[in-house]
Amino acid sequence: MEDPTQIIDQHLTEGAFYFTTTQWQGRLSAVNDHLLRLTVKQGGAWPTHPTIPAALPVEKNGDETVATGGTDQVYRTPIITAAETTPLTASKADQVSVGAVKLTLTHGQLRLSRNDAPLVTIYLPTFSDGAWSLRLRTATLPHYFGGGMQNGMVSLNDRLIAIATENRWTLGGVTSPVPFAWTTEGFGLLANTFTKGAYDFSDLFRGAEFSHDDPVCDVYFVIGQTPADMIRGYFELTGKPVRLPRFSFYPGHFNAYNRDHWVAVTAASAGAIQFEDGNWYKEYQPISDETFNTGFRRGTITVAGQSLVPNVYGNGQVTFLDPDENGMPRRSIRETLNGEHDFQFSARAVIERYRKNGFALGWLLPNDGYGAGYGQTASFAGDLTNLRAFRDYAASRGIATGLWTQKKLTPADPAHPQKGERDLVRELKEAGITALKTDVAWVGEGYTFGLNATAEAGAAMRACDRRPAIVTVDGWAGSQRGALVWSGDQAGSNWANLKTHIGSYLSASLSGLVNVASDVDGIYAGRDPLIALRDLQWKALTPHFFAMDGWGDVPKLLGQNAPAPYKTLAQAYLALHTMLVPYLYSLAALAENGAPVLRPTWWTGDQDALTQDLTDQFLVGDDLLVAPLIDAYGLATTGAAKRAHVYLPAGSWLDLQTGLWQQGGQTLADVSVPLAGLPAYLRTGAVIPLTLPHQNPAAAQPDLIVLAVPGASRTTTLVEDDGATLAYQTGDQALITLMTKATGSDFSVTIARSQGKKTVAPRPVTIFIPTVSGAAELSATLGDAPLAVHTTFGPAPVDPLGRWRPLSGLTIDCGVCDPAKRLTINVAGLRINATETRA
């Protein structure tokens, strides 16, 4: 039989290596010395853009809203933004090289080596029925990661994964696929295609199998030494992740406030919700094609000649307070953005609830498409004015405004937009919105759809000198350039979702989708305040999360409507989140270097953590380990429970629940977690920039609080910019290095002078060194001059959780300091609290 991979011709031309078999033609080229491209085709011209799927069936999984706002895949936005600019050189007739990388082509195999050490063997692709398959094999068994947001999965070893839009949001589903996978051996593969794929890692002795429904095999190889190198290489190919505006690092609230009706009912009625006036109401929707509720729904009513169906809040017995002779309510109250009909049924009222309850909020999306819109006037212009009025009100309370969309962003006739149409440019420029969510009705077909949508919306925002603040789903390779990737519609009151979300966050982060988020307590259900609180507790230590309100059994308000003590604890964790914004924002700004904000436990080099079992804990940066409570194991009537296991990497760790030290390199078993607790640990030497707790972005204070953990030496970079515009791209930012240094019982904390074009104003600085006690000698300098500071031993200076945890140590009040000058604190003779030893 004829060997289809037998090479019959090979030559180097203009820096690219061409080779031919009896059945296809291949080409090797290089972007640089660590990014290589392999293209194999069966006749025809070399491709100018990635293949897009034809007549692709849309996966709906029972959700009829999916992909109703557009049709057909269209290529507008590239996956790859880099060009092959580095020529290959010939070493031998069958060998080419670039830098330290050599590629040898023999017998249908491409052997890749680095510094003459074998790295991987690439078995040249085979083709069948318009699809290609490619196998990679190494001498050792590597660990594979990537594939996009593979829900609940981090390590890909022993798995077959889909690179496909599934619109399946739960464990094992794929939310935003990325055709990119890489290994701990120092290489990765990115397929330049918009077609479905399947990656098989189930038999790594034979090799990893990559396949796509594409007649052209066009793949890039990423070569590097570390995991950060692999992700940074992916960014070199597809573009750096967007730097999101600062407001998006605060809790978001999403719902529709221009469509539904509320009817007065008795307190015992199914789905009844009590409002500020003391009365109980039930929510109903008008019947509409856009709302997808035209079919039979139990409980349909008629009010003033209009048919309404119940929202998802319960389907039991309902008793109306003011029925007519037919038993139907005489009156309903329609929601609005600005409270024209009744203020308590408005988006403005939501802002006031957050404010009055002391709950943090950064942005609000007051519509969701699906028949909502944003005004009740007779014209587009009138509705736009209504949106502007709401935006101004929200801005006066420190809250940003955004919109959802289920269909295109431009009117049919741009010069004459009609009521009910969208015009994103005018919404940005005239109404002043700053955020957008692309819903599954628009982008649910996936592949080119998601990438085109975020590119279109992002271009409009950048044209207004605004950073794209876009929440999307069903993304693809390149989505990180313009979007925050959302995990989709999970149910509330579900323990399983907590663990799944952790794996989803990590798989996305390791695939280049470094900006990730999900809904606190899901989108549906919601009657279990314990699960809602446990979900909020760990998400409060991540950059982005939302209250997805309007679809659950109860309103989703991040715990405002929860009974005591859940409400108080939710408020405290939200306050803690606002303190963490400087740290989280800085990690996100630096993620373009390849290290995502949320990292697997093994990220800093602990090989024992390279296991599929650690999908339910994560690092925030390198120094904060979070192990959420993910089930009801050991659950007591108080809400306290146990975490079955926590693995601590090598080194020493400060337990933030107990204020005690734990030795790393071990697994802690049956960790007790009180209701107010969250298993979280700081690495020795960690230096974390914080600020004072506050309710919204506009209320943030300039104060810098540095949490410096004694016992080792570490470094963190604080990034500061205007938080809104694109000015940082031309250097208008400040980079401030925070350092700790430990030598015996001596410990120092240094805040280096600010670097960059942005001038940072003088501000109060407080340094807190936890878990230390006893007298100590202390000296401080600001620039070249001694600095008088005030010191106290005792509880943390600011701790929203201080009522529930014993975190105490040395507080150093440095007064107002100029960031243009180096601040150094030297402490001698500190006594560190004893380490707790647990098996």
TrEMBL record:
<dbReference type="InterPro" id="IPR048395">
    <property type="entry name" value="Glyco_hydro_31_C"/>
</dbReference>
<comment type="similarity">
    <text>Belongs to the glycosyl hydrolase 31 family.</text>
</comment>
<keyword id="KW-0326">Glycosidase</keyword>
<dbReference type="InterPro" id="IPR033403">
    <property type="entry name" value="DUF5110"/>
</dbReference>
<feature type="domain" description="Glycoside hydrolase family 31 TIM barrel">
    <location>
        <begin position="447"/>
        <end position="587"/>
    </location>
</feature>
<dbReference type="InterPro" id="IPR000322">
    <property type="entry name" value="Glyco_hydro_31_TIM"/>
</dbReference>
<dbReference type="Pfam" id="PF01055">
    <property type="entry name" value="Glyco_hydro_31_2nd"/>
</dbReference>
<dbReference type="InterPro" id="IPR017853">
    <property type="entry name" value="GH"/>
</dbReference>
<dbReference type="InterPro" id="IPR011013">
    <property type="entry name" value="Gal_mutarotase_sf_dom"/>
</dbReference>
<dbReference type="Pfam" id="PF17137">
    <property type="entry name" value="DUF5110"/>
</dbReference>
<dbReference type="Pfam" id="PF21365">
    <property type="entry name" value="Glyco_hydro_31_3rd"/>
</dbReference>
<dbReference type="InterPro" id="IPR013780">
    <property type="entry name" value="Glyco_hydro_b"/>
</dbReference>
<keyword id="KW-0378">Hydrolase</keyword>
<feature type="domain" description="Glycosyl hydrolase family 31 C-terminal">
    <location>
        <begin position="594"/>
        <end position="688"/>
    </location>
</feature>
<protein>
    <submittedName>
        <fullName>TIM-barrel domain-containing protein</fullName>
    </submittedName>
</protein>
<feature type="domain" description="DUF5110">
    <location>
        <begin position="709"/>
        <end position="763"/>
    </location>
</feature>
